[in-house]
Amino acid sequence: MGGLFDLESHLVFYRSYHFNHTNVTIHLICIPIILLSAIALLLPYQLGNVSPYLNLGVLLAIGYSTFYTLLDFKLGSITVPILVGASYFLSQTYIWAGTSGVEFTKDQFTKYALVAHTSAWLAQFYGHGVHEKRAPALLDNLLQAIVLAPFFVVFEVAFALGFRRTLKKNMDNRAGKIVRDLKFKEAEKRRAKQI
């Protein structure tokens, strides 16, 4: 695998766990839910008393979008206003939920975020178990899978819109070979057990 900023190697790693169309679709829906709900769950943890908008959720959004911009300036730059804007909106909603006279409480906000987060994870495990028939990437590399997953979604949308076709072709070819080799090894193990 390439270095920290080797975008194609990161995408190949993630693609090699996501070849089934249904599983990819589940991930395209669930990964943004997981990231946004994670941001929401981190909002109560403020970094000092300077501002309610200076919290771990906003810091996570800034961190992700900064890393993505370093990996690929064009598509990474798109994530900055999306993630930072979403973290600001979620922070605003969380602050609003705590005001008097509002029936929507901070506890309810956190419970909804937790339900969304958990449901999206369960849906992804379903996609891997039933459709992909392969364990998720996070079992092999937790950090890479969790950090790269949202950017993989950005690239899947870009590919669907016709952008970065050469990168998509290279990624799919390299990942396809990994999946082919894995299936061959699994078939060999099954044959060995039968003997």
TrEMBL record:
Keyword presence, Transmembrane: yes
Lineage top rank: taxon: Eukaryota
Keywords assigned by UniProt, alphabetized: Dioxygenase, Membrane, Oxidoreductase, Transmembrane, Transmembrane helix
Name of the protein described by the UniProt record: 2-hydroxy-palmitic acid dioxygenase Mpo1p
Keyword Aminoacyl-tRNA synthetase: no
GO molecular function, one term: dioxygenase activity
Transmembrane segments: 24-47, 53-71, 78-97, 142-163
Organism of origin: [Candida] anglica
